[in-house]
């Protein structure tokens, strides 16, 4: 498990554990509009009141456990101020060997998994103020076992690791294709076949995902936008709203009392 940078806040049950391939968020959902993630999204109600979901333009459905596959537009409404949200990166797991709970779309009836997520949240809250999460295995905590890794072509894996490590960099498909000795068209085809996402969508998702590292920073939104690789605040706001269903200002405001455990830096516990 990676080292963890911890930013503590007097947020009680509210925290976020951010690693390279996983996210656990226990916090405010807000009045989000349609959103679309680059990974499997799992929503669990913390105390049993059912949340509501609408997939695309479909009907509203309710449940304590909601699951959304990657790149599926959806609306979510939380019955409580707090929502428990898991995110599993699309390129990190084999879609053909996922546990049953992640193979659905919409409400899922799995009381044992719901109890596991709630218990994991309680464990992380208890640990948040006194220790780092570096010794905790994310997948075993939430799923009871490591999730199967997606088999990837070494050239595509190289590009994924490069973009994930520096999402703010101006990566172009043409340059990435040349760097791994593939033609432009072959690279685009192979990237989508291997990851389930176009290169453009993947790059946009990784850039938007990097915002989560900045939610507890004191920098201005303009500075955050530039640090995250966006050319200006307008583009930043539009892109973030497309993916999260919220404006950057709403995400930052809703994170003020959030304890952040970020696997991007050195250990800062205390």
Could you say what the CATH architecture of the largest domain is?
Sandwich
Q: What is the 3D shape?
A: globular
Name the assembly state: single chain
CATH topology of the largest domain: Jelly Rolls
Q: Output the CATH homologous superfamily of the largest domain.
A: Jelly Rolls
CATH class of the largest domain: Mainly Beta
Task: Note poorly predicted spans.
Answer: 1-10, 265-270
How is the main sheet built?
8 strands, mixed
Structural class: alpha+beta
Sheet with the most strands: spatial strand order:
1-11-2-3-9-4-7-10
- Rg: 18 Å
Count all strands and give the number. Answer: 11
Domain count: 2
Strand content: 15-25%
Give short descriptive properties of this protein.
alpha+beta, 2 domains, eight-stranded mixed sheet, three-stranded antiparallel sheet, 19% strand, globular, disordered N terminus
Written account of the structure:
The chain has 270 residues and is an alpha+beta fold. It has two domains: 146 residues, Jelly Rolls (Sandwich), CATH 2.60.120.10; 95 residues, Orthogonal Bundle (Arc Repressor Mutant, subunit A), CATH 1.10.10.60. The chain has an eight-stranded mixed beta sheet with strand order 1-11-2-3-9-4-7-10, covered by helices on one side. It is globular and about 50 Å long. It starts with a strand and ends in an 8-residue tail after the last strand.
Outline:
This protein is of the alpha+beta class and 270 residues long. The protein has nine helices and eleven strands.
Write the layout of secondary structure elements.
Blueprint: E1 5-7, E2 15-18, E3 22-28, E4 39-44, E5 51-55, E6 60-63, E7 65-68, E8 74-77, E9 82-89, E10 106-107, H1 111-128, H2 138-143, H3 154-165, H4 173-179, H5 184-195, H6 199-209, H7 221-227, H8 233-244, H9 248-253, E11 259-262
Parallel strand pairs: 2-11
Antiparallel strand pairs: 1-11, 2-3, 3-9, 4-7, 4-9, 5-6, 5-8, 7-10
Helix pairs in contact: 4-5
